[in-house]
Amino acid sequence: MKIAIAFFVAILLQFGLTASHLWWVFAACQPVLLVVVASARRFDPVGVAWTGLAAGLATDLMTERIIGPGGIAGAVAGVVVAVVVRKFEMVGPLYWIVGSLLAAACSELTWILTLVTLGMKPDHMWIGAFATVAMTGAAGFLVAASERVVRAWQSPERRRRRVLRRL
Fold first, then answer.
1. In this structure, what CATH number is given to the domain that contains residue 152?
2. What secondary structure does DSSP assign to 38-99, as a single string?
3. Which of 32, 46, 97, 142 has minimal CB crowding within 10 Å?
4. Hey, CA dihedral for 121, 124, 126, 130, is it positive or negative?
C-alpha cells in the first residue's frame, strides 16, 4: 500500500516539476524512478521489474510519447537496481543515491536504445539523458538525507537524552 501511495505522489510531483514556469532541468527529474528504487527493498527482481514497467508506462503517458519504450526502460532499470541492491547489500544513503543514479542511467540508456532500434528519433539525446540522471540522483540524495533526519529524530538515543534532560 505504501508503494502505491508513493507512486501516486511521485506522479503528482513529476507533473509539478514539468510546469512551464520552472527551469527545464527540473523537468528532467523522474521521481517515479525513486518508487522503483523503493520497491527494491520489498520485492524480488521480477516484482521490481513490474513496478518499473508501471513507472515507465506512466512516464510515457505523462510526456505524451509513444507507449512502450518507457515501460521497457523502466522494467530493465527495475531489474538492474534490484540485482545490484541484493548483490552488494546496499542500505542507508548509499542505497538511495546509487539506486536512483543506476535507475535513471539504465532507464535513459534503454529508452534511447529502444527508440533507435525502432527507427525513431528520441525527443532528447545525451544532454537530456545526463540531466535526467543528475536530477534523479539529486532527488535520491534528497530522499537519503530526509530518511537520515527522520531516523535521527525518532532514535531511541534522542528519546533517552530528552528524558535525562527533564530529570
1. 1.10.1760
2. HHTTTS-HHHHHHHHHHHHHHHHHHTT--SSHHHHHHHHHHHHHHHHHHHHT--HHHHHHHH
3. 46
4. negative
What letter represents residue 135's amino acid?
M
**What value does the mean pLDDT of the chain take?**
91
CB 137 within 8 A of CB 104: yes
- Alpha carbon of 36 to those of 10, 18, 64: distances in Å? 11, 20, 21
Whether residue 144 contacts residue 93, with contact meaning beta carbons closer than 8 Å, is answered with: yes
User: What is the extent of the structural domain holding 128?
Assistant: 2-166
List pLDDT tens digits, range 126-135.
Answer: 888 999 999 9
d(CA 7, CA 32): 6
Our count of domains for the chain comes to 1
Distance CA 102, CA 23 (A): 24
- pLDDT, tens digit (0-9, with 9 covering 90-100), for 27-66: 889 999 999 999 999 999 999 999 999 999 999 998 888 8
The values of phi and psi at residue 121, to 5°, are -100, 120
Query: pTM here?
Result: 0.88
